[in-house]
Amino acid sequence: MTQILLGGDSWACGEWARPEGAPGHVPVEIVHRGIEQYFIDDGFGVVNTAEGGSSNKSAVERLAAVVDDHYDYVIWIQTDPIRDLRPYDSFNQEFTSYNLLLEYSKQALANTYEKLNQFGVPVYCMGGCSKLDPAIDRYQNLVVMIPSLIEFLIPGRAAPEIWTSDWIRKFDRSTNIDMMDRLSKEKWNQDTLDRVELFQPDGAHPNRTALRLVYNFIRERYIK
Length: 224
Hints:
The chain is 34% helix and 14% strand. The chain starts with a strand and ends with a helix. The chain contains 7 helices and 7 strands. The mean pLDDT is 94. Helix 1 packs across helix 7 and helix 2 (56-66) packs parallel to helix 4. By secondary structure, the chain is α/β, with parallel strands linked by helices.
């Protein structure tokens, strides 16, 4: 049986929704296991190390803990690189401009790619909340499958340059007006995913239909 090792954040966990009839304050939960389930349905063995809300750093650590076992394919879905800075101590003092956030994002992704590359086996990569950095092409063990799931699923749509996660609460309008204006534009791009059918019902994650499209692409191009 072909064995798959899957890693990432909530986008690698599947479709998320609130329980039927639950009020808006009730947290979403996994209602379909997405890519993992489709592999299982087709007779593959799957170990999924993904966790909702994960940083790239934590996702790679979970993969590293088991990658020495025998897997035929390792698949990783990238998330917001700024999450690596948790718990964001002195965050709003260190990041006083939008460009500093961009610079840190690129450096954090470089660190992540280096660690994945050190696995010494091919790691098949997709951009989830954040788009893969083109610099990923420098790493011989990293295979780009889909640079951005958002752009793959919504032709003509540009993925957010910065995905705003829990760290956004460290800032307020008095922090830096220009930076907050730029972040607000990126967050609008992110928030309007809830208008796209493939990101329903919760508006923040690809649903099972979207993940079926992703799965079909993976099977046609990379994993027979």
